[in-house]
Design a protein that fits this description.
The chain is an alpha/beta fold. Among the domains are: 13-30 and 143-205 and 275-376, D-Amino Acid Oxidase, Chain A, domain 2 (2-Layer Sandwich); 442-473. 34% of the residues lie in helices and 21% in strands. The protein contains 16 helices and 18 strands. It has helices spanning 2-7, 59-71, 89-92, 105-111, 116-136, 155-170, 180-184, 207-220, 267-272, 288-294, 337-340, 344-357, 402-418, 428-431, 442-459, 466-473; strands at residues 48-55, 77-80, 96-98, 148-152, 175-178, 194-198, 202-204, 224-226, 231-237, 240-245, 249-257, 274-283, 301-304, 310-314, 320-324, 366-376, 383-387, 392-396. The strands form 3 sheets. Strands 1, 2, 8, 9, 10, 11, 17 and 18 form an 8-stranded mixed β-sheet that branches. Strands 5-6-4-13-14-15-12-16 form an 8-stranded mixed β-sheet, sandwiched between helices. The radius of gyration is 22 Å and the shape is globular. The two termini are 31 Å apart.
Amino acid sequence: MLVANRRKIGQGHLAKVTHPALRDAAPSVFWLDRAGFESVRPTLTAEIDCDLLVIGSGYTGLWTALQALERDPGRDVVVIDATTTAYGASGRNGGFCDASLTHGIANGLSHFPQDIETLLQLGRDNLDAMENSLHKYNIDADFERTGQISVANAPWQVESFLEDCEQLVCHGEDAVVLDREQLRNHVVSPQLHGGLLHRSNNALVDPAKLCRGLAEVCEQLGARIFDATRCTGLAVHGTMIYATTEHANVRAGKVVIATNAFPGLIPVIRRRVVPVWDYVLMTEPLSVAHLSAIGWAGREGLSDAANLFHYFRLTSDDRILWGGYDALYYFNDKVDIQRREQCPKTFDLLARQFFATFPQLEGLRFTHRWGGPIATTSRFCATFGTTMQGRVSFAAGYTGLGVGASRFGARVALDLIDQPGSELLKLDFVQNAPIPFPPEPARYLGIQMTRRAIARSDANEGRRGPWLKLLDRFGVGFDS
């Protein structure tokens, strides 16, 4: 039943895609639509006790369980999930794995200037530790340190690369600006005018393989993972936290909430985090002729420099993943994946934009189309906190960079309940919360105003109008 539910087409399938290249595209997640991802984990049906309960078996939850067991191999760790491992953003993302914890150096400088060098080093160490864990536990996640290129699809975007590159190099990163001809040595597209090549501290992964591998290692180390076990409430009873589920209770000494974009069990998460829906296409494998036509021998991860941006990459079997641009927020969103994962209008738009970027690939077909939720905060990077006498902690809101940053978020969440004297907890990044989003309907109206203002900025060579300048003044915004 879990597998059927995971792949069930949402209500959006009632509308049809129209682009010819989408005619045979399956309305399912490429990463999950392969053998080996069927769930075999039980549902919790009897009351149990544990030392640590982790709610959510995506990246944050699994990294929490793994690091908790590495710190204390005798710890009794239980992980529960309302659906199954990799069902949410952890199995649906593009697989871009960046070292940044702050959604880039510029954003980090604007919010945490006094801690930026520390945060940059923590991010680099975190990515190295992640790669080391994959090797240590033999997790095959197609991890590649390919570098990334931000590309300009309009001439005005090239100018910003000079300042961005200087900032990266100043902070110890390996980066260089590419003019149009130099970019053609990396990727060929008549629409691209230049690029910023960032060679260091980023990678690509297969997101679902990563999630599956982490889950298997956690179980090998002693964690118990339960699928189809939705937590419906938390309460303190003496020295224990009682977590109620649909079928049984869990008594835990401590709890980490790792639900990210899904509605939080405590109000503070719901105030700080909103779900943004992002949509993705996957092509069929490219032929030798296709690959020759686009270059891309370095296999770098690519994204364009617009505010409404695309991201694209090659997979291990030489498909192109193409996503982004049309990040959507739905009124009072409860993160119903079955309802929201299909958006034909956006898929058609993405297909047209793909062939505008790569006209030499005309005739290529898409095999998969899907969507998923991204958890964003008003400062574009994660938020942390505790509740229930410090026995329950959370980390959420990675704003599109959770593949790497979630491991660090899990580390912070553990320190919050285990090591209150930890140096990590003294960082402004951890101590200071983002400005909360307003309640509905102001939340929806504000986000829609911001999306329209961002689109106008892109159409006006990046000039930011009054609304965006006002948001900039207070250090807040909306992004995926």
